[in-house]
Every structure is written in C-alpha cells, then in structure tokens.
Design a protein that fits this description.
Blueprint lengths: L1 H21 L8 H12 L1 E5 L17 E3 L8 E2 L5 E4 L8 E4 L6 E5 L10 E10 L2 H4 L5 E10 L2 E8 L7 E6 L2 H4 L16 E4 L10 E10 L7 E7 L2 E8 L11 E6 L3 E9 L5 H9 L7
Antiparallel strand pairs: 1-16, 2-3, 2-6, 4-5, 5-16, 6-15, 7-12, 7-16, 8-9, 8-15, 9-10, 10-11, 12-13, 13-14
C-alpha cells in the first residue's frame, strides 16, 4: 500500500506540473494570442527582468552584468556602478533598471549571449524605456543599446538618440566597416539616406509612460550573399526598414551587449530572441498586460 500511495502522488504531481506549464498567462487570453506568445517565448535566448537583480534571468553561458570604464570594455569587473541601480516597483513590470546620470562607465552583458551566427543570422531585441529625451539626457549622443565587438561603425547594432534637439531616435545596423563603407568616406560626408540607419523624428518617448522599442534582423551573413533586412518598431508599429548587405564577423566572446551608454532614465525587460519576430508577435509584446513572456 505505501508504494501505491507514493506512485499515485508522483503521477498527481506530474499532471499538475503539465497543467501549470501549459496554462495561459492570462485566464481570458484569446487562443490565437496564446499560440503566438508560446511561439515567441520559445525563441527567447536572453532575458533580464531587472526585478531585484541586474544579472540575466535567462542566459546560456554567462548571465552576469559587468562594468567597464568605457565602451572599449577594458579591465571590466562583475557588477554595476553607483549610477545604475534597481528602482523598486517602478518598472513596466515589477522593478526597473535606473540610470541616474550620464557617465563614461558602461554596463554590459557578454556577447556570447547574443545568439550570433556565422551564416543566415536572424534575431530580435526588445526593451522598454521611460524618459523624456530632450529634458532628461545630458548633451551628446546616447546609446540605450549598443552591441558590438569593435566600435559603433564597425560591426554594430545600436539604437540611439541624436545629440541635436529635438532628439531623433535611430536604429543603426553597421556591418563590418569595409562592407558598408568600402571607399572609407567620412561619415558626415555620406548622405543621410545612404547611411545604414532608420531615423524616427519626434519619437513617442515620455517620462510619464513606457515606450516599447523593438528591432529585428534577418539574412545577416547570408549564405547566398543576398542583402539582409533590419526593422525598427516603436510601441508595436513599424518605423522603417533597412535592406542592404550585412556582413558581421564577430568573435562572440569579444562582443559586448552594452546598455544605457550615456543614458538617463528607466529601462525594463530586456530580451533577445533567436529569430526575427513578425509584426503580430511584436504587437503582442507591446500590448500584452504582462509583456506576454513572464
């Protein structure tokens, strides 16, 4: 009899576990949305909720946050610095990461968590931000996200705020330098419409509400040498598309996923996916009451 009771308890626990795992995030969530969110969750490879900790909640090899003196990331140390803190209960979902003032120090995660692929690479970055760029940021450029091995113009993905007021918001997808600028032309001499960037005038950022930022890429390092595609979304709406050759030669262990470079404001729910999400998935990330992935 004791063995039978033990077996029954084990089966009951297994059934409860399966039921809980497959339960929708919201009780009245439409069946179609639930299926889309399930597929979206399956593509997550990096996640930081910033709920109580700065380290990653979902990662492959190394979930630590690091601090370095500059974007060169030399002599980095694990942890954050005094101007970057957890803001309790101030996030879009739970806590948030707060950048209190501009500093040359940078915080970053290891690029081995970026999902980089040498062939036919695709992916998505999603994050929430809360700030008034024209009032909260100090003079100069600001890069809320900068992912690169070498520099902003040589194998880099970034979103940034321009230094001029009113500040534009931009997606930059700068492949290997010789790929996008083979003639070594000075950046200011390149016409704006020929730069590998998507620019948004009068972006919808505010100190009173959260703004969802999402960008995707696909066919990077294309095996057929075809062009890659990158898209920028704000609050679930497509803002612009880049289509051009995209060759990124990285050693992922030398790459930094830098966040909050010269940033002043709040951030929440940083996610990287291993595929380019479609319009429906991105809209759900924006409008779902829990972000859809918690």
């Amino acid at each position: 009899m004791p063995q039978f009771v033990t077996l029954f308890a084990s089966l009951l626990a297994l059934v409860c576990s399966v039921t809980t795992t497959n339960a929708p995030l919201v009780a009245d969530e439409p069946a179609g949305d639930a299926a889309v969110l399930s597929k979206t969750r399956g593509a997550m490879i990096l996640h930081s909720s910033f709920d109580g900790v700065v380290d990653l909640n979902l990662f492959d090899e190394n979930g630590s946050m690091y601090t370095a003196a500059s974007t060169k990331r030399e002599n980095s140390q694990r942890g954050t610095h005094g101007e970057v803190t957890i803001a309790k209960d101030q996030g879009k979902f739970g806590d948030a990461l707060q950048f209190r003032r501009k500093t040359e120090q940078v915080v970053f995660y290891q690029g081995s968590e970026s999902g980089y692929q040498q062939k036919d690479w695709q992916g998505t970055v999603s994050i929430w931000m809360k700030l008034n760029p024209d009032e909260d940021l100090e003079p100069g450029f600001c890069d809320p996200i900068l992912i690169t091995q070498r520099g902003w113009d040589d194998g880099a993905f970034f979103v940034d705020f321009d230094k001029e007021l009113p500040r534009d918001f931009r997606l930059g997808v700068f492949p290997d330098y010789k790929t996008w600028n083979p003639s070594d032309t000075g950046f200011n001499q390149i016409p704006v419409d020929q730069r590998p960037m998507v620019t948004v005038n009068q972006p919808p950022f505010s100190a009173d509400r959260w703004t969802h930022v999402c960008y995707t890429w696909q066919n990077v390092n294309a095996s057929d040498d075809g062009p890659g595609t990158a898209k920028l979304y704000l609050n679930g709406e497509l803002q612009g598309t880049l289509r051009r050759p995209m060759r990124f030669t990285w050693d992922p262990k030398q790459v930094g996923i830098m966040i909050g470079v010269h940033y002043v404001g709040l951030m929440d729910d940083l996610i990287i996916f291993n595929r380019a999400l479609d319009d429906q998935q991105i809209k759900l990330l924006y409008r779902h009451p829990t972000g859809g992935l918690r």
